[in-house]
Amino acid sequence: MHKSLLLVFLIIVGSLLQVQAQPWQATNLTSANFLAISAVESHDGELFAIVFNGIAGDLHRLNADKISWSPIVVDGIEGIPGFLRSSGERLYLGTTGLGFGMLYYSEDNGASFAPDTLGLPSDVPGKIATLFGLQYLGGRIIANHGPAGYWLRESAEAGWREIVTPTALNGGVDPIAYAGDSYFAFDNTGNFIFYASEGDLSSWTERSADLPENFTGSILEADQAGERLYVAGAKSDGSDYGVYYSDDGGFTWTGLDLSAFIGTDAKGGQQEVTSLYARGDRLFIALENDAADSPPNVVSTSTGFAELKDDSMGLPVDPGGVMQGASILEHQDYIVMSLNVRDVYIKKSGVTSVAAAEEKADFGLYPNPAGDFILLDVESVGRQLHVKVFGIDGSLLLAEAVESGAVRVDVSGLSQGLYVLQLVNEGHQIAGRTFIKR
For the domain with range 356-437, which CATH number is right: 2.60.40.3080, 3.30.70.141, 3.40.50.460, 1.20.120.530? Predict the structure, then answer.
């Protein structure tokens, strides 16, 4: 290999050792860029998703192999499926039609669905007002009916009731979150007021949030393991875009330093956050793509804000620069991210960085760059030890069972390039390395 080319590869290796060792893996829901993923949800140990083809929405369940899905035949529903939300005991399915919506639930993991519309607003006889979203917050299902407002259902109640919200709040636009026994909402209709409500959501109070003047919060999320709140947005004129967090219920906010990641999108406009997920020190932020012919932009950390890194390895190259992470959630011990089109991607949630992996297990890998084989010096970490090799596009290229100690791995069948090697013990990644095949 030419020395200058080798130097370039070594620089790449050095940089990748500082980013996420584990690539995102495709689940193969669809490979068509024109098919939208309109919803994804974890319920009762299963992962469900809806694929929209422009005419109809089809419900699917992820198979145990995590790389394929099975379609679910849903009979007796009206409208096009577009929303999924788990309440723990029930899986809710929301549909939309021409000027109406419908809401159904399943208590048998999608085998059958029954309507749940008692008390919801209605514009068409026998139907409900158009749905704009479903959330499960603080033990309650909340239905967003746009101009008709927000409605909630508690498991002990026989039907739905309207949430009394400040008149400034506009369903369909203003985000709601739940943290620390309180509900929070952001008015984006012109008053730019942050509200909080405790208890039964019968009253709201304004919070004098120290956000930028005329700040519009397009995304409002809560830490799933604590009371921290996150808001993403900008001033009403689109300037000063950023992500802020609060540890005191929205009174004071601190901006995250995302200057290394947020710039302009593929069309030259402001690059914005499209989805955010937080649990403790783990934070995942999906962004609009910043360029054509590149994977969607994602940043994450498992060790705090100072360690935010690019986390796009394994995501597909997007020719048009329009793919983006639409939703991020946890399912079993996986982080799940659905793109707005094409597919749902997963990665183990326990170990996400090289540094974290090396704290669990260590191994030597040489020679690097490699020829026809690589040698691994593996510590004894128990039974069921496997080696997996991935391409930089996230595709699994090699997998074999190995023993602890000195391990020889044949890589003669790989083309020249950069690869990610994982050590997996009993189904869990315990360490990772990158290497070059010359």
Answer: 2.60.40.3080
